[in-house]
Write the structure tokens for this entry.
Amino acid sequence: MAKESMKAREVRRAKLVARYAEKRAALKKIVRTGDPVEAYEAAQKLQELPKNANPIRLHNRCKLTGRPKGYIRQFGISRIQFREMASNGLIPGVKKASW
């Protein structure tokens, strides 16, 4: 199990990313397409945003245990929890392969 503080940190980061997503996208568009003076000003404003507002700083974690590695995106859980739940028949439509 991950520390509660690590899980809470990821939740805070996700909220911050969501809050600044539109503003960040607008500034990045100006940086890419605007004239050099506007682009420079937009880049400065982009740097003033909080570091944790950048989606790159998010890290997927297992919803059940908080494990950061072995994350399966389709289910939102770690490989260990996936295997356990699939073996117990708790994930609909998933069964052990045999051929």
